[in-house]
Amino acid sequence: MPDFQHAQLDWDEHGQPLSRGFGDVYFSRASGLEETCHVFLAHNALPLRFAALPAGGRLTVGETGFGTGLNFLCAWQLFERMAPADARLHFVSAEKFPLTRADLRQALALWPELAAYAGALLEQYVAVHPGFQRFVFAEGRVVLTLLVGDVLERLPELDARIDAWFLDGFAPAKNPDMWTPELFAELARLSAPDATLATFTSAGFVRRGLQEAGFALQRVKGFGQKREMLAGRFEGAPQDTASPWFARPPHPAGAREALVIGAGLAGCAAAASLARRGWQVTILERRDGIAEETSGNPQGVLYLKLSAHGTALSRLIVAGFGFTRRLLQRLEPGRDWAPCGVLQLAFDAKEAARQAELATAFPADLLHSLDREQAEALAGVALDSGGLFYPEAGWVHPPALCAQLAEHPNIRLLTHREVLDLHREDGQWCARSGETLLARAPVAVLCGGAEIARFPEAAGLPLKRIRGQISRLPATAASSELKTVLCAEGYVAPLRDGEHTLGASFRFDSDELVLTAEEHAENLQLLREISTDLAERLQADRLDPAELAGRAGFRCTSPDYLPLVGPLADAAAFAETYAVLGKDARQVPQRPCPWLEGLYVSSGHGSRGLLSAPLAGELLAAWLDDEPLPVPRTVAEACHPNRFALRRLIRGG
Ligand SMILES: Cc1cc2nc3c(=O)[nH]c(=O)nc-3n(C[C@H](O)[C@H](O)[C@H](O)COP(=O)(O)OP(=O)(O)OC[C@H]3O[C@@H](n4cnc5c(N)ncnc54)[C@H](O)[C@@H]3O)c2cc1C
Ligand SMILES: C[S@@+](CC[C@H](N)C(=O)[O-])C[C@H]1O[C@@H](n2cnc3c(N)ncnc32)[C@H](O)[C@@H]1O
After folding, report:
1. Which protein residues are within 6 Å of ligand 1, measured from CB?
2. Mean pLDDT across the chain, nearest whole number?
3. CA atoms within 13 A on the CB side of 516
4. Which of these, 355, 338, 344, lies nearest to 300 by C-alpha position?
5. For the chain, which ranges sit under pLDDT 50?
6. pTM, entire model
């Protein structure tokens, strides 16, 4: 991450972008559009293959070098023209030097015929930071997974089956570091049987390298003045290296119908991701609407608690932040969310040191340090210290995000339905309340926070509840000057609807949800520690904790603070199948995992559900539909529900 940078461009007299670093063009000076059609679309036979997709079918393209996105937009346009209405395009592309949004806008203005597609890309082109970044277009018909970073580092993290490769990425002579046997081996590893490949180059070492990796290639006529290019097909054997307990479960048999239990952020996101893929989803919620429990706070903060050491949690947070941030582009600013930035104050020496480390580890457009004066100017109130500023973050009204996610013709919301019992009968999960059958489907997704422990299949998952309370403070004229979210041990947001949300207490031993004056008083103390000036502006000393409005809820956390997202296995059968690990943890017994067919979970989103729950929906859908994973394989495994059973076996505990 430290060496991350945006593309450095020069523009020629025709307005075409040139890479300063590589000294090469992004596309043919004659016609970038026609070049893309000839080299990548035609030589992967995409017109025919898109047209031949079955109803509900999917084609996955992989690309090296996203650049201006021209290839992506052309593929999308062709897909719209040729593919059946319910087919889907998944585009995975690696890019080491993403264009800035301004450069992207300027480059794409060259193609008025692509204006509609370019506009959609530009609208979503926010929070594009290192790692995996997922984009959803055309109501989910087209998905883009941008792998931000060196293709030689990102592809090994990818779990996908690619049907067609666009091997782009500047001329081999100008970019020799990329065109390597390691790259060709990765293309082979990720290829679906009979995957095709096309590249503009005909360099001999590229041809030989690809052949050695298992591709059969032909030299064919290149675009324009270019004499030759390469096109071919993967003829090697598919490779799958996942351990059986993290392997993809078989497709659940039966109709594409799913039950989602719980209508908070996790449930609404899971439902949205499935519905966009053509699943018919029934959400069962015990309350009288969505976001009535933990996801019901008036304001939640996009609070990125990162590590400078590239931990799985940190990578999940950066990917999740990007995904959530792009979803928010579709909500009403000011009412449903605000991109007002988040300022994490350097409130003591330890925090200041942590922040200094983070500032060197992440790009400045994700986070950067501010001294006290800069921080005060930005916040609009007096502060005791500077801090770390996240310019693209802000606050969100979680119920609005839940509502947006749950609004889809394929989603049916059934409220006042408490699932007390879940059983698999005749290939379907049957959800019951006493004797009453509430709904049934081949797939069920448990999204009820820590409550999922009531189902025996999930009872062994180590989930904990931590009560928390926020306080709703009436805004004053002076407090309305607050322009950004401020965080120290607690957080306070700029006003929404005449109030500021102040949070949040932690109670590890409470099962109650009644508001307490004690926790309001604690929150007011957190406010004073954030800014005495703001506390005065809010007249905190005159507020009576016993009279304050607020909300209490349970955070649901796991021992390693990562969420639990993915398929569930039968705990007893798992322990028996892999018992040998208790004696020798290095063994990988090739015995299939005893999955509980069609049973999935998204829970344990802790204190940052706004960042993790929406992307978790995409991860669940990827497990279910055998799609490219939206996060690195190691991150998906770090979130896998089986990790705890595995650790128990290995530690013998
Ligand atoms: C005080 C506080 C402050 C927070 N602040 C932030 C913040 O600033 N930023 C942030 O990102 N996160 C924050 N969080 C965390 C965030 O709210 C959670 O991570 C998120 O809401 C979890 O969503 P969920 O869908 O998993 O759970 P929930 O929102 O609790 O949803 C679970 C749903 O399942 C339903 N349910 C459960 N069991 C059943 C059943 N058997 N049948 C039917 N329905 C059932 C429940 O009624 C509920 O609606 C905060 C949490 C708390 C408590
Ligand atoms: C010719 S441009 C790609 C054009 C692009 N396909 C388009 O449609 O605009 C090559 C791209 O590859 C990227 N690139 C070069 N080396 C890379 C590497 N090692 N890893 C990832 N991307 C790389 C460059 O930054 C550049 O954006």
Report:
1. 261-267, 284-287, 292-295, 297, 300-301, 303, 418-419, 447-449, 451, 468-470, 503-504, 553, 555-556, 603, 605-611, 613
2. 96
3. 16
4. 338
5. 1-2
6. 0.98
